[in-house]
Amino acid sequence: MYRWLVLLHVIGVFGFMMAHGISAGVAFGLRRERRFEHARALLELSASSYGVMYLSLLVLLVTGIITGFMGQWWGRGWIWVSLGLLVIIIVAMVALGSSIYGTARKLAGLPYFEGGRQRPPIEPASAEEIDAILSRGHPMLLTLIGFGGIVVLAWLMMFKPF
Known about the structure:
This protein is mainly alpha-helical. It has helices spanning 2-32, 36-48, 50-70, 77-107, 127-134, 139-159, and strands spanning 112-114, 117-119. The protein contains 6 helices and 2 strands. Helix 4 (77-107) packs antiparallel against helix 5 (127-134) and helix 4 runs antiparallel to helix 6 (139-159). The two termini are 25 Å apart. The model has no long low-confidence stretch (mean pLDDT 95).
């Protein structure tokens, strides 16, 4: 059973990376795109992957926690560092990414999240306002945080160094 849960954990990671990769690609595309309708379409594409992304994140968290108990890993430091690093990565991504692209969705007249709830679209802002928020995006920094974090997480889980 343990190996099956590890497999599900890895599938959860792949699903998360696949779905989140859509948002990463959109972030790079939005650096150059300033035509309102094209930017809006990219933002909609990014949002379309959220369901798979969050479901995959749930799968990888639940299976990681269960296999941590099954493998009796909770007494080792690597699993706590892994969990803490995952939380840090998520917080950094939300602070640096979701705030900018969520605001861009709102300004583009698309459904957006606020206070943990999805809100209906509002009247779109001007192209200049949308351009201003999109120019604050740092997709390379987000990619370095996300990919670098995943590399460290993979190392911790593969080698269990402490």
